[in-house]
Specification:
253 residues, 6-stranded mixed beta sheet, alpha+beta, two-stranded antiparallel sheet, 2 domains, 21% strand, Transposase Inhibitor Protein From Tn5, Chain A, domain 1, single chain
């Protein structure tokens, strides 16, 4: 699917994926041959090679890192504020036998550590040009955005509600669902071009879908009451968001 998108001329700067994709040596080799950077999650027992230590498990390599190797960086904003983690990286070489003629580029092992629990996650990274740590962190964080979009598609437009009896019906259903999701996403971006009223969060995709249903698809008689509830939800969410930001700021001090 990824190679078909690239063959079709899709503009791709980076590819992000979970451990299934990180373990696919052929996929990594194909992306490197095409000069496409990637940040792919790998399991703790995944093996990589470094110039000095040879082949080793990624968790063993990360365990040897000194305290000064870790940096606190945000992987992007979430519903509860910035996603701050501790990050570290190690320059690696290729370990796949098929990579003997691997193209020139830069390869790293990226590690993410939860600041509260100490839980670790690992990523195998490649870029045809040298990239700063912050760029790899942002790409790793974009995978969460993709997963959130899938969840939104399921919850707001019924992406997972088809019975999948035939290819044609599934294709039609999925196309209509994605068009509906696209409409909501574009409307959300257009609405957020203007600043939200003081004390309210900007209109979210979920809220726009709710208002569209109540005011257009299945109109209610009392429009004023519907809008009043919308303002109440946005005001309540703004207060909760500010409380999360304050708590996060206090924890980081």
């Amino acid at each position: 699917m990824i190679t078909r998108a690239l063959d079709g001329g899709a503009p791709v700067g980076w590819v992000a994926g979970d451990e299934v994709y990180g373990a696919a040596g052929k996929l990594r080799a194909e992306l490197e041959q095409r000069g496409v950077g990637y940040v792919l999650a790998v399991a703790c027992d995944h093996h990589v090679s470094t110039a000095g230590a040879g082949s080793a498990r990624v968790d063993h390599l990360v365990a040897r890192l000194p305290k000064r190797a870790w940096q606190r960086l945000s992987a992007g904003r979430g519903a509860k504020g910035h996603r701050f983690y501790d990050w570290a990286w190690i320059t690696i070489t290729s370990t796949d036998s098929s990579d003997i003629d691997a193209p020139a580029g830069h390869r790293w092992l990226l590690a993410r550590r939860n600041r509260r629990t100490g839980e670790l996650a690992y990523y195998r990274c490649f870029s045809p040009e040298r990239a700063p740590l912050g760029t790899l962190v942002r790409v790793a964080g974009r995978r969460w955005t993709v997963e959130e979009n899938f969840q939104t598609g399921k919850g707001q437009t019924g992406l997972d509600e088809h019975q999948v009896r035939t290819w044609t019906s599934w294709y039609r259903w999925t196309t209509l669902v994605l068009l509906a999701h696209l409409f909501l996403a574009i409307t959300t971006v257009a609405e957020r071009a203007q600043p939200a009223p003081t004390g309210l969060i900007p209109l979210s995709l979920n809220e726009i879908r709710h208002l569209f249903t109540r005011l257009v698809a299945q109109p209610v008689q009392d429009i004023t009451d519907c809008l009043r509830w919308s303002w109440w939800r946005r005001r309540h969410q703004h207060r909760a968001q500010q409380a999360h930001y304050q708590r996060q700021s206090a924890q980081e001090r």
